[in-house]
Amino acid sequence: MTEQVVTRFAPSPTGFLHIGGARTALFNWLFARGHGGKFLLRIEDTDRARSTPEATQAIIDGLAWLGLDHDGEIVSQFDRADRHRAVALEMLEKGRAFKCFSTQDEIQAFRDAAKAEGRSTLFVSPWRDADPSTFPDLPFVIRLKTPETGKTVIHDKVQGDVRIGNDQLDDMVLLRSDGTPVYMLAVVVDDHDMGVTHVIRGDDHLNNAARQMGIYEAMGWDLPVYAHIPLIHGGDGKKLSKRHGALGVEEYRDMGYPAAGMRNYLARLGWSHGDDEFFTDAQAQEWFSFDGMGKSPSRFDFKKLASISGQHIAAAENAALLHDLLDFMAVTGQPTPSDTKISLLSQAMPLLQERAKTYIELIEKAEFILADRPIAPDEKAAKFLDAVSLGILSELTPHLQNASWDRQALEGELNAFAEAREMKFGQLAGPLRAALAGRSATPSVFDMMFLLGREETLLRLQDVKGTA
Prior knowledge:
Radius of gyration: 31 Å
Helix content: 40-55%
């Protein structure tokens, strides 16, 4: 029977869920879901000085917005300190760890001397093989006994086989002198106890893997499958910073990117499936594998994110898109539309979603529905409402009172009106856009008039005539 796949995302709650962490979570989620396995969430909150409940909640909210659901309860690493401590003591009993009484001053003196002599500055403790009868009554740390010869080989699904000489690895501390476990120990114990089969994380943790493998081997535990993924860089090839897009995922949410578009784009950052750029969650789960992972850092590109997001908005079912749009309006503090406006939004969705790359752009196009009378034109639109244009609208009004109110008939009526007056249609469309939406860039005037209905259209034209 094949072992069930178990992956995990294990962020430190010291800030928001940034884009690199979100992609790591996504890859773990895709791999687990694609193999019918479990995706677990562990909060690595052992750094009590920097860990905050607010940051923990921001991570949970960020994952929820991205749609990355986890299995089981959230695990707190800090709450498991007793278990971590017990494992360190077990290694001590087995002779795979030792007590070290060296002080910080002694360690520094060793390193200074080694540096002066051109030797490795990795600390070699004099207590590694000391007789317990020589132990002083002083504080001590517990260190792992790392093999002194040979190599540690990380069989990595992305990086290939990575070999590190054991003489490059120190006898790392497992328990501090106050009895608290270190992060490196806690990670291994938690991954083992949670049944994690695949550790998928950034390649900045690659060296950690070599040190953590020593704990697995000391305890006789099976190693997980490692996959260390390249980091994300900015478009200029430099380490990702805020100016490149290293923001919290909630900021992308507030910029109006749909979660489906964000998942699609993040999946393509460092992973590919042939030439496919646009795909669904189901396809991503089916296709995702380590074979498609690159070894080089990927580059964050806002234009490509916008393009993929626009494709997801265009492909969305009307009801689902309306639901997500209303959620976006609520979470960003915008007024809740009336039932009448929601009904109009639903009818208008096919024309609103065309070429919209974000929910913000979609809302801009929907301004003719969302705005309340009297419509207040913005600066660009107001320029179309001069005395001549207002006269044209006043002359047009009687023609609309008796026109057939379907889109084709309205298009014929307006074109005939412009042609009879030897006007270019733009001379009529500009003032109509300003009157109906208060904007100069809108859906077609025919679509807006048809959706608003005869009564509302005439009332809006009456409003602007009153401003003359």
